[in-house]
Amino acid sequence: MLKRNSTCFQFKVLLVTKKFSRLSRNYSQTFNTASEATLQVELNQLDKKWIDKWSSLIPKEHPHSINPLKFINQENEKKPKLYTLSMFPYPSGMLHMGHLRVYTISDVLTRFNRLKGFDVIHPMGWDAFGLPAENAAIERNIDPSVWTRENILKMKEQMKLMLADFDWEREITTCSDDYYKHTQKIFKLLYENGLAYRSKSEINWDPVDQTVLANEQVDEEGRSWRSGAIVEKKLLEQWFLKITDFATDLNKDLSLLEEWPEKVKLMQKNWIGESHGVELTFKLTNGNDEDLIKTFTTRPDTIKGVQYLAISLDHPLTKKIMVEDDALQNFIKRAEKLPEDTKEGYLLSEIYVKNPIDPLHNNIPVFVAPYVLGSYGHGAVMGCPGHDQRDYEFWIENASNQPIIKIIDPSDPNIKVDVNKPYLGKNGVLNQKAGKYQGLSVKEATSQIIKDLESVKLGQKVTQYRIRDWLISRQRYWGAPIPMIHCNSCGIVPVPDEDLPVLLPKVDKIMGKGGSPLSKVDDFVNVKCPSCHKNAKRETDTMDTFMDSSWYFFRYLDPKNTEIPFDKLKASNQMPVDIYIGGVEHAILHLLYSRFIGKFLHRIGYWDSKMNGEPIKKLITQGMVHGKTFINPVNGRFLKPEELIYDSSETSPRIKETGQEPLVTYEKMSKSKYNGADPGKTIAKYGADSTRAHILFQAPLTDILDWDELKIVGVQRWLRKVLNLSHRISKLVKTETVLEKPKILNQDEIKLHNDLQHYIKSVEDSFTSTSSLNTVVSDYMKLTNSLISSLDSSKVSLALIEDAFLKLLIILSPVTPTVSEEAYEIYCNNLNKNWKSVLINQWPKLEPVIESDSVNYSVMINGKFRFVFNGKKSLYKTQDQNEILKEILYLKEGQKWLQNREIKRTIIKPKMISFLVNT
Ligand SMILES: [Zn+2]
């Protein structure tokens, strides 16, 4: 333990002099704290400097790489693999704030894991097929491939400027034929395994974009996710993928996804919609044995209350009757345009069905109703207006003159149910209208009714799913052609593997909307049948772009393979994706399709999996970035930046015209709200490090981030502190001849040591288990401040400070690589050391925390708290009053309150020392 110079200490308080020797460790207190002002680094100038310097350390074949660590360390084979992936962007030509957020998260995690010794796979590519490119091409009359390529180049450059370190050697572009060749192969595999089929089916038609939409692309209001138009129903021959074949596994295996957000799993669960119920058969009263309607219900207990059946617009019975029923034909035409939740129905005259449990009840009417989906169940539902809200509403609309029948009463007689309203409760008792089931509880009735149905062979237990097969046909140009040929003699014939890819033909002008653009390209359409060699026609639909992105994470592992989509061994070794980062808006569509294709490829032996073909182990969904939005309080109008004027403090603007203060909110960025922020401009103004640290610091990563550029100064102030600290420390180290770590640490040294261990551990935890990247930045700031106070106190060994500082530079390099490097270069230059990139390092090893033998005592003088004294814990045990006084009088505070005073009494408690003195 440190020995303090106590030679001048005299026991008598009155004799205490001012000659207190301030503890000096191995360096002298001569540095100049004013140097802070002398260093005014332009943080935005560091980006170019360091990108150039790093490039000089990276082999020339990797012009877009910026992290030398990956190339310098040659022992990658021995390192554990870690696959980190962020959702690839659509190449619109411009990174937006959402991209900046997700790629910053992905980049810092990757840089951290590389320092931790992982061989990280961190690829990037382009989700390049799809409507925006096609629409842009039509508007500007340019080739979508040219437009896409130009945009990719721009965005690649922007990613470099944000210092995102991707494995560009793995880059893929879904619209290149060397990629979609394999998308076509996977389609063929699905077809060969009976999972791709063509069916004439009711589809969602977007009247604005003139294309078919998947169910997932229609929102709750029945509008297109892209154009916003009310979606219409049409019957078209379409390609489907049988995702329903995997519904059981997709539902069950959600339990394997322990590192997925619960919210996303719940959304998937609801989408898959597994329900257990009974399949029922209703026989037509006037028909023969084949005339029956199958339906599904989760409430067999209500079967005695059935008052009608409703069948879909494309039910076989509907089709049969409509041939001779003009009114029905007209109804169906009209119904295609009705919203999904419409209550309209068409009563089929003279058609009745029998209740399967009660054949005497044989006058149940049948309606054709748009609310019944052809693809769910059997396209028919039983209607119990007495016990189902939707059935009730339908009944009121279509048969209001007939009362509803209720066969279940609440078990609790105190619950009163309006006689004209349905009873929706599930805890009830069947009443006399339920005939022989009277008196049974819902649960008892359910099992008895299932038994009875089974005995007459008119019902059986089944599991039903809400999810429907994936419609992948698109009548658009810019997508992967479906590799199929229609032959009059042979039917549908797949394009042989050796003829893949089916190239998307170049066209002078995309025809725009309506029908398949490819159907107008004769050279493309007319083809010989691969089987009989007669004239045949190609399929002219292209694939949904979600098909391209459903398997891309496999391709990254083997991006140059010209023969097969990917090598089995590579996929088996490196899948699943360890960390997948992207927006929660992909919680259903993309992730569900990816799980489906991952499971399919596993099922057919394309890769080995320990998670039943699940492709993604951990999922991180980052929140959206909202923009600062100014609104005129008088008329509610959004204000443009040029309509505002800022005062000198630049924080609170006023409206130029009126001088009023605008309302300030944060909302989803959009052109109409003038609240967009351009990541490129922010980086150019503040530098990449400040922008990255700011975007992480402002909100927990799953929360919405309110982007306020003005707050970035806080991060900048901290980064300048780090650079200043490098100057101060290196100048001191330079003047020091002996620089050794003390064998025994004093209290301040213990504090710095423990702070360092604490923050390394905390940052590490945030990067690994908790993903709380906002606290990472605040931990950096706290450790920086701890170093500054250690230096200022001059009680801490310089060797310890130097060591802690160099470790700080390593641990902050994932977030702020240029400041780390700059600070390290300053240090090296001042010490005439050779600079070697700080990125080429290992994450600091944690050392044990040193148990401090000191404790903070509150010092009370005459009953009043005056200051805190950090002294040995043993003082309480020994009650050594002389020792205490001696220690306290080293402190300025101690001198202030006790010097030249007569101490009458000293009381020592575990955390408090109280002096009674004469005033
Ligand atoms: Zn043929």
TrEMBL record:
<feature type="domain" description="Aminoacyl-tRNA synthetase class Ia">
    <location>
        <begin position="466"/>
        <end position="598"/>
    </location>
</feature>
<dbReference type="InterPro" id="IPR002302">
    <property type="entry name" value="Leu-tRNA-ligase"/>
</dbReference>
<dbReference type="GO" id="GO:0032543">
    <property type="term" value="P:mitochondrial translation"/>
</dbReference>
<feature type="domain" description="Leucyl-tRNA synthetase editing">
    <location>
        <begin position="269"/>
        <end position="453"/>
    </location>
</feature>
<dbReference type="InterPro" id="IPR009080">
    <property type="entry name" value="tRNAsynth_Ia_anticodon-bd"/>
</dbReference>
<dbReference type="Pfam" id="PF00133">
    <property type="entry name" value="tRNA-synt_1"/>
</dbReference>
<dbReference type="InterPro" id="IPR009008">
    <property type="entry name" value="Val/Leu/Ile-tRNA-synth_edit"/>
</dbReference>
<dbReference type="InterPro" id="IPR002300">
    <property type="entry name" value="aa-tRNA-synth_Ia"/>
</dbReference>
<dbReference type="GO" id="GO:0002161">
    <property type="term" value="F:aminoacyl-tRNA deacylase activity"/>
</dbReference>
<comment type="similarity">
    <text>Belongs to the class-I aminoacyl-tRNA synthetase family.</text>
</comment>
<dbReference type="InterPro" id="IPR013155">
    <property type="entry name" value="M/V/L/I-tRNA-synth_anticd-bd"/>
</dbReference>
<keyword id="KW-0030">Aminoacyl-tRNA synthetase</keyword>
<feature type="domain" description="Methionyl/Valyl/Leucyl/Isoleucyl-tRNA synthetase anticodon-binding">
    <location>
        <begin position="754"/>
        <end position="874"/>
    </location>
</feature>
<dbReference type="GO" id="GO:0000372">
    <property type="term" value="P:Group I intron splicing"/>
</dbReference>
<dbReference type="GO" id="GO:0004823">
    <property type="term" value="F:leucine-tRNA ligase activity"/>
</dbReference>
<dbReference type="GO" id="GO:0006397">
    <property type="term" value="P:mRNA processing"/>
</dbReference>
<dbReference type="GO" id="GO:0005759">
    <property type="term" value="C:mitochondrial matrix"/>
</dbReference>
<dbReference type="InterPro" id="IPR025709">
    <property type="entry name" value="Leu_tRNA-synth_edit"/>
</dbReference>
<dbReference type="InterPro" id="IPR015413">
    <property type="entry name" value="Methionyl/Leucyl_tRNA_Synth"/>
</dbReference>
<protein>
    <recommendedName>
        <fullName>leucine--tRNA ligase</fullName>
        <ecNumber>6.1.1.4</ecNumber>
    </recommendedName>
</protein>
<dbReference type="InterPro" id="IPR014729">
    <property type="entry name" value="Rossmann-like_a/b/a_fold"/>
</dbReference>
<dbReference type="Pfam" id="PF09334">
    <property type="entry name" value="tRNA-synt_1g"/>
</dbReference>
<dbReference type="Pfam" id="PF13603">
    <property type="entry name" value="tRNA-synt_1_2"/>
</dbReference>
<keyword id="KW-0547">Nucleotide-binding</keyword>
<dbReference type="GO" id="GO:0006429">
    <property type="term" value="P:leucyl-tRNA aminoacylation"/>
</dbReference>
<dbReference type="InterPro" id="IPR001412">
    <property type="entry name" value="aa-tRNA-synth_I_CS"/>
</dbReference>
<keyword id="KW-0648">Protein biosynthesis</keyword>
<dbReference type="GO" id="GO:0097157">
    <property type="term" value="F:pre-mRNA intronic binding"/>
</dbReference>
<keyword id="KW-0067">ATP-binding</keyword>
<feature type="domain" description="Methionyl/Leucyl tRNA synthetase">
    <location>
        <begin position="86"/>
        <end position="219"/>
    </location>
</feature>
<dbReference type="Pfam" id="PF08264">
    <property type="entry name" value="Anticodon_1"/>
</dbReference>
<keyword id="KW-0436">Ligase</keyword>
<dbReference type="GO" id="GO:0005524">
    <property type="term" value="F:ATP binding"/>
</dbReference>
